[in-house]
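Sharing a chain and its predicted structure for anyone who wants a worked example. Both blocks are below, sequence first, tokens second.
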Amino acid sequence: MHLIGFLLSYPILWFFSLLPLRVLYFISDYLLFPLIFHLVRYRKKVVLDNLRKAFPEKDDKEIQQIARRFYHYFCDLLVETIKLLHISEKEYKRRISFKNREVIDELYQKGYNIIAVTGHYGNWEWLSGVSNATPYQNMSLYKPLSNKYFERVMTRIRTRFGAHLVPINETMRRMVSYRQQGTRVLSCFIADQTPLPSHIQYWTKFLNQDTPMYLGAEKLAKAFHQAVIFLKILRTKRGYYEIEVIKLYEDVSKVNDHEITESHVRELEKLIKDKPEFWLWTHRRWKHKKPADG
């Protein structure tokens, strides 16, 4: 079934990726949005439930407005991701700007490797070009898809501009390998994913909810003595993004347990509260309940 689904859909995706973004945005507005928001109502119950939990102070009218803006952006996110199949490096660079890039350069000069943390906010798929903007080798950590055929497509998309894609369970081994080779690495973590129940080690308050967090970024930063930054992805206008580099920690040797995790969680939370429509509300982020003795 995976192969059949791939063979049926990939030619369509390939064709659409050849279209200019202005045409893809027209499709986003007048085909995808009516289909996903009105007809299919894709995960609409989950989105509204998440928004109500995150913003209990907002009335239902405000919640519905945020949801509608989110689905508009979600459709844009889909076509922008498809466009990565064929977007030229020149056009990509024109659409992505960096703020505070000197933070990365300074850490490189001081000899640090870097843990870069972000969330499913803005177009995180367009982060693949970070490797072109820094002196580091970019290692992007990800969870492989169950469909091996679409996995190959996403791998191609995410590695077109020089990033090395590493399955999350191979992170430690790859970091050791890079260190042995003397390769300086900037490792990108999407840190707002929901851990499996057996992997939950830490709970925090995030958007007014008890929320389990992965501790991988923090543990690796301490184990390999790496600096930690947060990548703040801002949509400046349709099809254009600014990635602001925020230095969280340079020397992590004396940082308290969970302090790194709390720092990047708060940065993401501020982003979401400011412009909530750009976070991925379709995930059941709060499906696990904190134990009474947790």
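Comments welcome. The chain has a mean pLDDT of 90.
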